[in-house]
Amino acid sequence: MNYSDWQIYKKGIISKRAPHIPLKVEVDELFKYFKSGCYVRWYSNFDKAESEKFYFVIKDGDFSMDTISSKTRNMVRRCISECVVQIVDYQQIARGGGI
């Protein structure tokens, strides 16, 4: 079993693979490897014909700033202006990640 296909997220063991790719699931092994996990979540039969109560929303197509409303564009621009991108060392991260 490839444990790199899985991650812990909010107490759950979650598959990192795309939902349309088949995945081998051995629940007992996952609980032994990820000791803090409380449940396992994965997807199978992603694109089957029958309808269920669970579905994915997939955005397929181009996206640009011109396609969103002016209010949303303004919010995106403000958020981008507040971002700080820099190289950090491990000591800075250990101190809490502050600038």
Task: Summarize the structure in words.
This protein has 99 residues and is α+β, with helices and mostly antiparallel strands. The chain has 3 helices and 3 strands, in the order E-E-H-E-H-H. Strands 1-2-3 form a 3-stranded mixed beta sheet, covered by helices on one side. A hairpin with a 2-residue loop joins strand 1 and strand 2. It is flat, with a radius of gyration of 20 Å. The model has no long low-confidence stretch (mean pLDDT 84).
Based on CA inertia axes, which overall geometry fits? Answer: flat
Q: Please give the domain count.
A: 2
The total strand number stands at 3
Largest sheet: 3 strands, mixed
Average pLDDT rating: 84
Strand content of the residues, in percent? 5-15%
Flag low-confidence runs: none
Going by helix content, strand content and strand pairing, the class is alpha+beta
Q: Percentage of helical residues? A: 25-40%
The helix/strand order is EEHEHH
For the largest beta sheet, what order do the strands appear in spatially? 1-2-3
**What is the number of helices?**
3
Terminal residue distance: 40 Å
Radius of gyration over C-alpha positions, nearest whole angstrom: 20 Å
